[in-house]
Specification:
By secondary structure, this protein is an alpha+beta fold. 13% of the residues lie in helices and 26% in strands.
Amino acid sequence: MFRELLVFAAFFGSLYSKSIPNLKWSYTNGTEVWKEDFKENCAGKKQSPINILSHETENAADDLPPFKFSDAFKKDISDVNLTNNGHSLMVSLDGVNDHDLTISEGGLEGEYKLSMIHFHFGEGNNSGSEHTIDNIQSPAEIHFVCTSDSFEKGEMGKLAVLSFLVKAPSLADEKFNILQHISVFDTGEKTELPAFSLSSIIPLDNSHFMERYYRYQGSLTTPKCDEIVVWTIFIHPLYISYEEYEKLQVGLTEDGDKLVNNFRQVQPLNGRKVLRSVSHVHRR
């Protein structure tokens, strides 16, 4: 499961590099400086991530049905690399093995194609996620970045991100053997991943998990912070062992520092509604 997550991370970085060449930014001086450095978007009113107050979310169960994932999610994918782009660990899935990795329904308009997965994580076992729920930050967060056919037009809602918060208890079973093949690597370096199925990362057959999520309209969480994203935050977390969590922290930044704490601070909701796909919320 975890190795698939790593695969997605690579795409998000490549997405930015294609659309915004030579854009320079970092987490070194905090993320609030982005509102000055990239004020056109990063100082907008629909920014991400956010803190989700579960008791203030609105019941939209009738409008937020379960997602439909294509059969390709259960097939092995090969010939993919885990890349350190200097800001995150990412895996690009664009055109991988000609698999049709599509997602639909779940309140989305039309069909989206899974393009990339990337990771946000901290240095300790209590902070690292971008989104928080009831003011609680998780150790890590995994983003499945999906694009629609009209993404290049830059329209709101044409980029959909499925977000999975990650917990790393000390006694969890180790499930992501792929991490055993990863060693410290510099910005721009890649490491080849063994074949894997995306269904080994996310519990597609667990309806209790997959049908419970939050939904809101927001932005990319890195510059230029474009407000074009339909966000889905799954209510229940994924679990990895603490040893596996530490293996996430193998990358180095362009300055040779340890690649950790790559998350943006939560942003004001500014009147936006946060919807939930179930009538009541009971987090695990």
